[in-house]
Design brief:
4 strands, 42% helix, alpha/beta
Length: 118
């Protein structure tokens, strides 16, 4: 994959509730902004974790607060709304450190016999 001189990167932080995952994302974002100063970085947050991202982030970083409040709303948002946002904003790369919710559920519910038919 060839990288562009300028990219739009979106980080799905809807699963972050603090701890190591939060530290990882904040440090990753700061380092990305340092080495990729022509990249635009968007971080998806919810009301319950927005407070964690009220730190001095580089100017290349934009926080997008979503209406996600419960797992059900998160599932709907990630499956229906997020693809529309990605298309509208022309996002080049979506990074989901905790995966998309539905994909995680599907993997845990997979039937090994059915999987072999795929």
């Amino acid at each position: 994959m060839a990288f562009k001189d300028s990219m739009k990167i979106m980080i799905n932080a809807l699963s972050v509730k603090g701890g190591g995952g939060l530290t990882y994302l904040l440090e990753l974002t700061k380092e990305l902004a340092k080495i990729c100063n022509s990249y635009k970085i968007y971080i998806l947050v919810a009301k319950y974790n927005r407070k964690f991202f009220k730190v001095n982030l580089p100017r290349e970083v934009t926080i997008i607060e979503t209406p996600v409040s419960t797992l059900t709303v998160r599932l709907f948002y990630e499956q229906v709304i997020l693809p529309l946002v990605i298309s509208r904003e022309k996002i080049d790369l979506l990074y989901c450190p905790a995966e998309i919710l539905f994909c995680s559920m599907f993997k845990s519910l997979r039937n090994p016999k059915f999987e072999s038919l795929l």
